[in-house]
Structure formats: structure tokens, C-alpha cells
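Appendix B, record 7
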Amino acid sequence: MTDHQQHPQVTAGILSYNRKDDLRRTLRNVLSISSPPLDIIVVDNGSTDGTLSMLESEFLSEGHPRLRVIPLKNNEGIAARNRLFQETRTEYLLTLDDDSWPASGNDITRMLSIMERDATIASVCATCVHPESGIAETEGIERFSSGGSRESGFEVLNIAAGGSLLRMKAVRQTGGYDADLFWGREENDLAFQLVQRGWKIVFYPDAVVYHAFSPTERNVYSRLEFITRNTIWILWKYFPLIVAVPAIMLFAARRTLPVIVDFRRFTPVIRGISGGIMGFGRFRAKRTVFSIRQSWGLRRWFYKMLYE
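C-alpha cells (predicted):
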């Protein structure tokens, strides 16, 4: 038995918020994986639905030695994933949502093999598939790649927090997730930090993570507002003005046009745009911009942003 088989290389890190039934299914699936061995950390983001009681009675009381639960007093948003970064002691972190889990241990091994083939890769994103419908929410993202192949992984700017393997050496060179974003585009924020430090991010379609996409705590119009606002912040934070200003204007127009067919979008889109612009001052000190040449190299991310 190799050292890698005896000792975990990977921590499965799960962020949970008010989805105790989904988390129960996720944990049962993750705990059923024996190879590769996994450390498991659950960060509970201030749940009020009895999640902690469920974890205590159904999992911790059973004595799972590799399972740790970190309860947070309040909902810290996506920045709570930084707790996972702080607590992970293994070389790699498999980031999961409370409603996502690897299809099998072999899928984790496939992601590991891509990492270990290329030491410049910071993140491997799996194909995220709905377990009941079989629909892949990551379908087609390779169209926006800047290189790579199915065998080596497509070079993209896609870190799916519910189904990506992260190299902790790379992540620790960044500032982690930006608490000001709270939720939305935080994965792009982390991706840009990694790219600025010379790391690669890939999508590997042959590894599968199931994502049940729980309807709990999801509101399409709230999501629209957050994504709109945070996209504007990300553009302002990482791109020179000659790129950021026209990109923001184009993105705002792209978000506004669908209001014609669904007027319910109007308020969240306008709030998102105004919130994004009002936040420029907050992000001024955080601006770490790409050069114009680097921005051109990231054009496929712009295409994907407008396509979504």
C-alpha cells in the first residue's frame, strides 16, 4: 500500500447553509468513498434549520474520525470557504456544496491525475451533473477555453465551488474569497488571483461531480441582482479602465435587454447595476489590474460572461 493510499491527499470541504436534508445526502455519499481516502470538513454558515443537530445526532455521534464540523455563528457568505482553506492540512481540497458530491472515488482520482501531471495547475473543475436529470450545468464551457484538450483539461477560468479540486499551495498565495462579494462571481475573483500568479485553471470533462441544485435558499431574482453587481465589481477590480468601462457598459446592456420579455428582471438588474457602480470606491484600493495584452488573452472569459 502506497503512502498516498494510507494517508489522505485530499480534503473534501463542504460549505452548508440551511439545507440539512441535502447535506445529509451529500455527507452519506462522501463518507461512502474509501479510495482515495478523504479528510472531510463541513463549515456550517450559521444555519437555523437544525443542521448542527442533524450533524451531531446522525454523523458525529457515530464517530467518523475524519469528519470535522466548524459551526459559524453568522452567515459569512462565500468568504466562509476561507475557513476551509485555513483548516485544510492536505495537499488538495475538493470543494463541494451542501448539495454536491463526487460521482465516485475514481472521479476524484481522475482529477488528482490531472493535477499531478502538471504542477502549474491550481484548479481542476469537474463536469457538474444533475443526478436525476443527467443535465450537465458545465456543458459546453470548453468552447471558451484558451487551450488544452480533453485529455489534459481545457484551460478556462471556471472554478465551480461545488465541484473543483484545488491545489492548496496555489490557493495560499491568494487572498482567498473576497468577503465584500458575499456571493456571486467569487469563483472568478479567485481564478483571476491565481492567473495573476501564473497558475492554470482547467476543466476536465471526464471527472464527474453530482450537483442536485437544491431549490432551497435559491431565488432567481436575488441571484440576478448579486451576479449583476458582482460582475461589475470584478470588471472594475481586475481590468484597466480602457477595458473595464466598455465591458461594464456592454454587460449592463446585455443584462437589461431581457427585461423586455420578463419585466420582473427590471428591479434586480437596476439594483445590481447601481450597486456595482456605487461599489467602485470600495474596490478602488483592491484594484490589481491585468495589462491590456493580458486582458486580450482573457477575451474568452468575456464571451462566456456575456453568453450566460
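Remarks on this record: Confidence is low (pLDDT under 50) at residues 1-5. The chain is about 40% helix and 20% strand.
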